Amino acid sequence: MTTITENEFAKLSKYIKDNYGINLKEEKKMLVIGRLHNVLAELKFKSFSEYYDYIILDKSGKAVNTLINKITTNHTYFMREKNHFIYLKEKVLPYLMKSVKDRDLRIWSAGCSSGEEAYTLAMILDEFFKEEKLWWDKKILATDISEKVLSIARTGIYNKQQVSQLPETWKRDYLRNCNEEKYEFTDKIKNEIIYRKFNLMDSVFPFKKKFHVIFCRNVMIYFDNNTKNELVRKFYNSMEDGGYLFIGHSESLNGGTMGFNYVMPSVYRKG
User: Fold this and answer.
1) CheR-type methyltransferase domain location, by residue (predicted)?
2) Does some domain include residue 53?
């Protein structure tokens, strides 16, 4: 197996942090070697220095896409941190239904991984609005830096085990059988989500309108404090007054709430 020197690891980890915010500490060195060993072998590179130069010189984006797909962890599942979805349906959506006068509801699943969170949100919205849904624009923006997980999300296809935790009514109303082991979301749900590749480290978010709800859960655990603070600042500037930010249960906002008001563990509100 190819080894990585301290200098090689420092260069590669700095590139990843500077461009994607992911903070690879020294103890992650073996993880990096393990996940990238086969990539180097396929490219016939004998060192991580060769691989680093390849990433920097490749203008197609293919090399860095492979790098990000390999080093990011995409562990997620339907109804993860269920109390967030309960709070969204029971508290947040009733408030937004009354307060969003133009009926243009904007929700962002940031770091959406393979789509489980975004599809859960789409089903909650459909169930909540019922016959009122025809009068609302409520598409969900779902973004990630990994094209690999986005391609999975766009298919809307999951195996039997993955959807086993969904309520039976949801499985009946929103899923169709592909075969004995696979289920696919109906077009009614798939069409409510817009998937885009997006880097949360971009200095400026390009959105023309602000969001009412942002879910960014179990993403900031990979960032150092400065990176996390800067991201939260950008979320704040991209959110409507009274909007809600949901983060992971193991996460918190540093130095107070940085302009957000604390609502409950891992839920914050602007203004």
Assistant:
1) 1-271
2) yes
